Structure formats: structure tokens, C-alpha cells
Amino acid sequence: MSRRTDTLTTLERHLERCAISIKPAVKREGVDAWFPYYAGYSPGFVREALTGLGAQPGWSVLDPWNGAGTTTAVADALGCDAVGLDINPVAALVAAARLERSANTSHSAGLANQLLAVASRNEIDLADDDPLLEWFSPRVTRRYRSIEGAVLDLLGTRDGVKVNLQTETPPPFAAFFILCLVRAAKHFARMKGNSNPTWITPEKRGDTRTETFDRAFLSMVAACAADAEKAALGRSSTRSTVSVVSLADARALSLEASSIDAVVTSPPYCTRIDYFRATAFELAALGIGADGERFRALRSSAMGTNLMRTTTPDVSAQPSAVRQLLKCIQQHPSKASDTYYYKHYSQYFDDARLSVAEIGRVLKPNATALLVVQSSYYKDIHVPLGDLYAALGEELGFRARVVLRVPVRRVLATINPRARHHETERRYSEDVVALQRVA
Question: Which residues pair with 430 in a beta bridge?
Fold first, then answer.
């Protein structure tokens, strides 16, 4: 048996033996609750995945769809140099905050009070088109921007220039305070009730006294600092790491070829979930309004987006399994199958192909990427996403296979009442796909 086969077989046996839950806990606690994405996986899974891959302190571990930063936080705690990339500024902010050392956050209470004092001295000219005015009264919005400005003035500058939160990820300590500010502010927002948890809209402007808002901020800083200190207890390596989180596109990684020892990630599922609508409040807090060009550009560039781009994907470049799925969708008799939905799925798999090719470029020879994906359905057509990513990997020259498959009962698709009558007929699974670069 070859060394390459040994690696995948050893990993498969390890994941089966440890029987760790892939999905995060329903009720998340500590740093995992700072921003609980619907999608993703548990910290325990990342630890076991890296253990199964033989990760050592000093490895470079990449997550090109980093989300709220589970991979980067766990890899960093193991002494690896983590690289977390995402196109959503909210996700990058959360992930960067999770990299802040507890040695700093333990002193955050005193600094938070200083930030409030600086904010009170700042005179803010509130823009008429500030996206937060859709969510809050001018009083709350002005106080929020004053505190945000104080954080960036003191902690969020590069070469004397304040970080632009719309296009850059602040350093971890600044990200920690900005995240605390966002989370504290959200308590005062008035959200519309909606059967779809990913569609967030304001019901009316939230309001409160400045003193009350400040107390909420201080309370959130204290709570998040305690979370960070508790998380630090699980750190298993004393190695000084060089981990980084930044905004980037998985289809065009700004990393050197053959520089990454392992990838643990979860690409967007093929389920038409609008992750940017789900972060509409947080994006507004960062200055990106739901009606603006920046918001639309982010949505359009996202993998799995509901928006159709003007480019035409090259379906012929896909493996036969993907082409067959696309053909079935195109020929389905339901409305818009041969137009919008065919284009949507073609666009998704084109993004997937480009991204997997980039992962192959940056992986070291014989190194492995693990992708966690979930199966789904288009009408009555099964979309076995794990098998499709394995086929895509083989087409691109990887050794590829599904190394773990776990049945899933609850999926977001079943929130649609019209889809529930199919629930007993359908079988969903969470798959871990291993893609090993051939030397």
C-alpha cells in the first residue's frame, strides 16, 4: 500500500474511531457563541481532523471559507500557523477576534472604559446615509460610531491610517472590541420575525439611552474576555504562532504555491442560502448597507449566491458526475429549471472547480485538504455533494474520496413548509471529503 493511500486510510479510520460530532452543538457556548453560523463544524471535529492528518506545531493550516473562524482558532491553539480567508467582512472580523490572546483580553475592562471616555470626547458627524440608521435611532447610531472610532483610533491603525472595516480586517485586539460593540448593539435592534433564519431585516429603529448602551458594551466586553480566557485553557501548544485572518476569495488565493500543510474547511453548501442577508445587521454596523453597491457586489461574488453573474461557466470542464446532475436539472419539468436554476447550479460548480484548483496549487505535495459538505435536493433530484466534490478533485488530479459520511436529520431546507412533505422520503448526509495532492 502506498504512502498516499496510507494517509487517507489512516485518516478515515481515525475519524471513524473517535466518533466526534461534525456539527457544532445546537446551543453554543463561549467563543463558539460569538457568532453562530448555521453552517460549519465543531471545534472537536477540527482537532480530530488535524490529529488524523498528523499535524504538528509549525504546520501551515488553511481555511479558504473560514466563516466564524473555528479552523483558525483550533489550529492556532495546536501551535499551527493558521490562515483564515473569507469574502464576508463580518466573518473575518469574528475570526480575527478569536485569535486575540487571553493575556490581552484579561485587561480589556480597563481599556473598554478608556475607549468610552475617548468616544465621549469625539465629535461625530453622522452621515445621512449611515446604514445603521435603518436599525437604530440617530442617538444610538452616533454613540456606536463614536465608540467604533475610538477603537480604531487606538487599536486599529496601520501605518497611521485607520483600518477600513468595509474592505480590511482589523488586528485581533481591535477586532475583539469591534465585535463586542456589534454584539452589544444587536441587543437593541428590533428584528422582524421570519420563518427563514437567514433573512434578517429591521422591524423598526431601536433606541436606548447612551448610558444604557455603554453599560451593555462594558458587559459584553467582560463576557467575551471571560470566554477568551476559558478558551485559552484548551490551548495545547506553547509555540508562538503567526496566524492571520483576512478578506480574500477562495477562487484566487493570495498564497504561494506549495506553502500549505493542510486544509480544513467547509465550502458553502449547494442550498441557495444567502449568507450575506443573514449578516445584514452586522454588515450595516461595518458600514455596508443592504441597499448599497458594496453589499450587492459581495452577494454577487459569493459562492452559492442567488444572484446570477454575466459570465458563462464552462460546463465542459466539469467531471461527468457534475455534468450529469446539471443535465438532469436542465431537463426537469418544473418552472425555470432550464434557465435560472440550471445557471445557478452551473455557477456554483464553476466556483467550486476554481476553488479546488486553487487549493491544489497552494497545498504541499502529498498534503491533504478536508472539505465538509452536506447533500441536498433540487426538487426530487438528489445532489450528493460529497461525491461530486470527490469527482471534482479526481478530475483536477487529487487522490479523492469521502472519508466520513454521517446521516443528518435536520437541514435548513425543511423550514420551507412546501418542502416538509418530502422530508420522510429524503436522506441527507454530512460528508468529509479528503483531497490529497499527488506529488
Answer: 374, 406
